[in-house]
Design goal:
CATH topology of chain B: Amidase signature (AS) enzymes
Order of helices and strands of chain B: HHEHEHEHEHEEHHEHHEHHHEHEEH
Structural class of chain A: mainly alpha
Largest interface: A-B, 42 and 53 residues
Order of helices and strands of chain A: HHH
Shape of chain A: elongated
Radius of gyration of chain A: 19 Å
Mean pLDDT of chain A: 77
Number of domains of chain B: 1
Strand content of chain A: under 5%
Low-confidence stretches of chain B: none
Strand order of the largest sheet of chain B: 1-3-2-4-6-5-10-11-9-7-8
Oligomer: heterodimer
Number of domains of chain A: 2
Mean pLDDT of chain B: 96
Distance between the termini of chain A: 13 Å
Largest sheet of chain B: 11 strands, mixed
Shape of chain B: globular
Helix content of chain A: 40-55%
CATH architecture of chain B: Alpha-Beta Complex
Number of strands of chain A: 0
Number of strands of chain B: 11
Strand content of chain B: 5-15%
Low-confidence stretches of chain A: 1-21
Distance between the termini of chain B: 21 Å
CATH superfamily of chain B: Amidase signature (AS) domain
Number of helices of chain B: 15
CATH class of chain B: Alpha Beta
Chain lengths: 85, 465
């Protein structure tokens, strides 16, 4: 069972994370836009590499719409994750 | 005397304690079997017969003299080849490290050796625990011992295959997004991803610092418990290492489960987005029946959506893996396998904001999962959607674009999660479920998993090679 401190933490986090309706709706980069970013990435990439990575990135971006982008200031990510905190 | 290679760790330990079996005889039997059949599945990259026999003789001498180090004393095990081993090559199944010989052992290897375990060698893996089994790597790809025309799962592919094929009694794997449970399920072994922070990762090649977890695979749940008994414990050299009370996991595997409360995550595997195969569904229904017959209370409970965990974990892994391997990906990209290189390159395109949002989302999912689990001891879910992929079929480069991972939820929450074989499909491949406990409650996971195994006949069937 959860201890009181855990329950309090859960409650506090709920208050701090009013995330409903604030999901990301990212602009998907065109291949040209992605190519420009790739040039700044420091990676050595062929045109074929870039096309392939663009497909992967767009797929990832679509899935990432599930991750909220608007967070309360105090919604601090863990510095070292602890499973029982 | 039965076939020595199919003894459990618990049985072999009892025989050695009574003086009815020597570690040397046991180790020689395994080395002979590796020589005879491993070429069919390529589970080992390096076999160390001399070191193993020396360790076995040492164990015999100690036991003869009355020194019994514990249940792992004299037991032959093997290591995924991302565990650093003093004086023995540690390749990560990669051209980048194919000649790398570490000077010291990983903390987990040191603990196994201190407990008297005998190290037989190093096992194949997906490159750096992330890539796929592809032909552009310096060592052969591991095959599934139940049917060598299929994949064994991964990334701890050699660990699952070697345990199932009776080429070692236990093996170490690592699990960042399911890499212990995936091969355990496809190869029909038991395997546990312990709570994040319970087992040291010091001296193990990293993939994703905030998700990497080290853990054992073995033929039975009880054997995994015996291995975890020597592996668990604080290590000041691992930043994420937790300080927890010592638990006797071996004993917990014999605990009755009457009254234990289990939350069934049925909506994860019978939803509109994806459904397990009919064989797997039957296996799950039967597992629920057996657990109820054993006295457990099983209720369907709604958890966060499977895709939420899946994408959260995938963003964290993609970003951290890129940071870890960035220099090599820039300077010597040709040394990586094609799939590995692509996956490591992708992280260069994720922003700091996206990464931090995923970390914040992780904490939210952890809190929501804990709330859903309130009043329950364990979560029950399938281990895999269906049978393993065919060996010759090209591996998906961006595998996360397919079905959501059934294992990722417990990497994201950090909870312990165990794979337990629950029968065989009509195609002959093993079926498996996962049992996940509250953080640091591996004891309940072992109790339920072992009780299920004792009540079912699935541990009697082995692959033939």
């Amino acid at each position: 069972m959860q201890g009181p401190s855990q329950a309090n933490a859960a409650c506090r986090l709920h208050v701090l994370w009013p995330w409903e309706g604030k999901m990301s709706s990212p602009k998907v980069p065109t291949l040209e836009e992605f190519r420009a970013r790739a040039a700044l990435s420091g990676l050595t990439l062929t045109p074929e590499d870039i096309e392939h990575l663009h497909k992967g990135y767009v797929g990832l971006l679509n899935l990432m719409q599930r991750i909220p982008t608007h967070w309360a200031w105090a919604a601090e990510p863990p510095h070292v994750f602890r499973a029982d905190e | 005397m039965p076939d020595l290679t199919t003894l459990s760790i618990a049985e072999a330990g009892r025989l050695m304690a009574r003086g009815e079996l020597t570690s040397t005889a046991l180790t020689e039997t395994f080395l002979n079997r590796i020589k005879a059949v491993d070429h069919k599945i390529a589970s080992y990259i390096t076999v160390t017969p001399e070191l193993a026999l020396n360790a076995a003789r040492q164990a015999d001498m100690e036991m003869k003299g009355g020194l019994r180090r514990g249940p792992m004393h004299g037991i032959p095990v093997a290591l995924k080849d991302i565990y650093e081993t003093a004086g023995v090559k540690t390749t990560g199944h990669s051209n980048l490290k194919k000649d790398y010989v570490p000077a010291i052992d990983a903390e987990t290897v040191r603990r196994l050796k201190d407990a008297g375990a005998v190290i037989l060698g190093k096992l194949g893996t997906h490159e750096f625990a992330n890539g796929a089994m592809t032909p552009d790597q310096p060592f052969p790809a591991v095959r599934n011992p139940w049917n060598t025309k299929h994949q064994p799962g991964g990334s701890s592919s050699g660990s699952g295959a070697a345990v199932a094929a009776a080429l070692c009694m236990g093996a170490m794997g690592s699990d960042t997004g399911g890499s212990i449970r995936n091969p355990a399920g496809f190869c029909g072994t038991a395997g546990i991803k312990p709570t994040y922070g319970l087992v040291s990762r010091c001296g193990i090649f990293p993939l994703s610092f905030s998700l990497d977890t080290a853990g054992p695979l073995a033929w039975t749940v009880e054997d995994c418990a015996l291995m975890l008994d020597v592996l668990a414990g604080h290590d000041a050299n691992d930043q994420a290492s937790a300080k927890t009370a010592k638990v006797d996991y071996g004993t917990s595997a014999h605990r009755p489960i009457e009254g234990m409360r289990i939350a069934l995550a049925r909506h994860w595997y019978e939803g509109k987005d994806a459904t397990v195969t009919p064989d797997m569904k039957k296996g799950m229904d039967e597992a629920v029946r057996v657990l109820k017959d054993l006295g457990a209370v099983v209720h369907e409970v709604v958890f966060p959506d499977l895709f939420d965990y899946h994408i959260c974990g995938r963003v964290i892994i993609t970003t951290e893996a890129h940071a870890i391997h960035r220099q090599e990906v820039i300077e010597t990209p040709e040394k990586f396998g094609y799939t590995t290189r692509r996956r490591f390159q992708l992280g260069a395109f994720l922003t700091a904001e996206q990464y931090l949002s995923a970390l914040r989302f992780r904490r939210k999912l952890q809190v929501d999962t804990r709330a859903a689990m309130r009043g329950y001891d364990l979560v029950l879910a399938p281990n895999q959607w269906g049978p393993p992929e065919k060996f010759e079929e090209p591996q998906a480069i961006f595998h996360f674009l397919g079905k959501a991972s059934l294992s990722m939820p417990f990497n994201v929450t950090g909870q312990p999660a165990m794979t337990v074989c629950c029968g065989f499909g009509s195609d002959g491949f093993p079926l498996a479920f996962q049992l996940a406990g509250r953080p640091f409650d591996e004891a309940s996971v072992f109790a339920a998993g072992a009780a299920y195994e004792r009540a079912t006949p699935w541990r009697l069937r082995r692959p033939t090679l």
